[in-house]
Amino acid sequence: MKSKTSIFFISFILIGFMGLQRASADSNDLEMLKKAKISLIRAIEIAQNDRGGQAYDAEIEDDSFNPEFEVKVTSSGKKLKYTIDGVSGEIIRVKEK
């Protein structure tokens, strides 16, 4: 019984810790959205219009010091990952997946 209690307690702590990390990530996303001059919708439009593709995933990246949007697009049977500058709206890079 002691083993089950220990496992439950450790699981409870780990789940709580993961929840704190998620809350922190959401806070970082909000900070980046405040700094952005374009919307996520506009970033999607920019990526789709570049090669006439269709977006299937999009998010704000908080890994850099400037807001950047990551937009995944399918175009002509290819999967492309766009990085869009959240301030200027310029395409920073396009990677084929």
What oligomeric state do the depicted chains represent? single chain
Main sheet record: 4 strands, antiparallel
> Percent helix among the residues?
40-55%
The geometry reads as elongated
User: Hey, roughly how much beta strand do the residues contain?
Assistant: 25-35%
Query: What structural category characterises the helix and strand content?
Result: alpha+beta
The neighbouring-strand order within the major sheet is 1-2-3-4
Total number of helical segments?
2
- Rounded mean pLDDT score: 80
**Unreliable runs:** 1-24
Radius of gyration (CA) equals 19 Å
Tally the beta strands: 4
Cα(first) to Cα(last) distance is 49 Å
Q: Could you spell the SSE succession in H and E letters?
A: HHEEEE
Structure in a nutshell:
By secondary structure, the protein is an alpha+beta fold.
Detailed description of the structure:
The structure is a single chain. By secondary structure, the chain is an alpha+beta fold. It contains two helices and four strands, in the order H-H-E-E-E-E. Strands 1-2-3-4 form a four-stranded antiparallel sheet. Strand 2 (68-75) and strand 3 form a beta hairpin. The longest helix is centred in the N-terminal third of the chain and has 34 residues, at 2-35.
Key structural traits:
single chain; 97 residues; alpha+beta; 4-stranded antiparallel β-sheet; 2 helices; disordered N terminus
Write the layout of secondary structure elements.
Blueprint: H1 2-35, H2 40-51, E1 54-61, E2 68-75, E3 78-85, E4 91-96
Antiparallel strand pairs: 1-2, 2-3, 3-4
